[in-house]
Amino acid sequence: MTNTNTKTTAGTMAMAGGTHPPGGHPPGASIEDGVVLFAHGSRDPLWRAPIEAVEARMRQQAPGAQVRCAYLELAEPDLPTAVRELAGQGVRRLTVVPMFLGTGKHAREDLPLLVQTLREEHPGMEVIVQGAIGEDPRMTALMAEIAAGR
Amino acid sequence: MTNTNTKTTAGTMAMAGGTHPPGGHPPGASIEDGVVLFAHGSRDPLWRAPIEAVEARMRQQAPGAQVRCAYLELAEPDLPTAVRELAGQGVRRLTVVPMFLGTGKHAREDLPLLVQTLREEHPGMEVIVQGAIGEDPRMTALMAEIAAGR
């Protein structure tokens, strides 16, 4: 077990953000690979729809993919619950995708503490944390396009 | 002045969210057209980098585009300040782009109140509010791709 990012592989990201080269563990590649879409959460259940739509699309593209949504607060399941479920399904390599536009307190402080606890609870599981999804340059390009009304 | 979405034009969205057909007022099309990228805000100044990157890209693609970032809380400028600045630059048609992954309390409750105040302060300005950017189906597709490590 390690609390550093030494297990981060090529194609994934350190917590501090940066560029997002392709890689990681494509979900569905193996029953041992799992992905958690980790979002803030909201009291408003409709807020979750876009996160759940990403989960649905990943399942559609890779039937059998081990994908779960999880939330920091105000919504369920939380991260430990989602990861316990994936561990029960046989997942041994987990990619956590921070569904945040930027890296602020939640991705920089809250998430690493949660991940540390995950690693203690699941010592046999490799846990990889991507950068905040909004930092991917492809997201920048697409958001500029949408904001410009194209 | 109106507080309803009757000024919403084809290609833009009502507050409640839904699909995002192309359209709106492309920034830079006229000095009278402006865009505000309205995000949550964070104490962490690095959190704003992806939002500011979208602003920079829009300026790069349409030099002279009237684009501003604005924040609900924990960062500056706020929405009224950004819109006052745009109004001073001659902007008469404003598109507000909610830089949120989903439509929760902030996009559904806080933003309409802010927009109502904007319309009272700038009666000659047409204010259009897009849906939350994370609800655009192109965002769903791209986020699924990134989360799958592609």
Q: Can you tell me about this structure?
A:
2 copies of one chain form a homodimer. Chain A is an alpha/beta fold and about 150 residues long. Helix content of chain A is about 35%, strand content about 15%. The first copy, chain A, has a 4-stranded parallel β-sheet with strand order 2-1-3-4, sandwiched between helices. Chain A is globular, with a radius of gyration of 15 Å. Chain A starts with about 30 loop residues before the first strand and ends with a helix. The N terminus of chain A is likely disordered. Chains A and B meet through strand 1, helix 1 and helix 4 of A and strand 1, helix 1 and helix 4 of B.
What's the layout of helices and strands?
The structure is a homodimer of 150-residue chains.
Chain A: E1 33-39, H1 49-61, E2 66-71, H2 79-88, E3 93-98, H3 105-121, E4 126-129, H4 137-147
Parallel strand pairs in A: 1-2, 1-3, 3-4
Given as residue ranges, the uncertain stretches of chain A (5+ residues, pLDDT < 50) are 1-25
User: What is the residue-averaged pLDDT of chain A?
Assistant: 85
Query: How far from one another are the termini of chain A?
Result: 47 Å
Overall shape of chain A: globular
The multimeric state of the shown protein is homodimer
Beta-strand proportion of chain A: 15-25%
Helix content of chain A: 25-40%
Largest interface (CB within 8 Å) is between: A-B, 60 and 60 residues
How are strands sequenced across the largest beta sheet of chain A?
2-1-3-4
Radius of gyration of chain A: 15 Å
Structure class of chain A = alpha/beta
Largest sheet of chain A: 4 strands, parallel
How many beta-strand segments of chain A? 4
Order of helices and strands of chain A: EHEHEHEH
Number of contiguous helices of chain A: 4
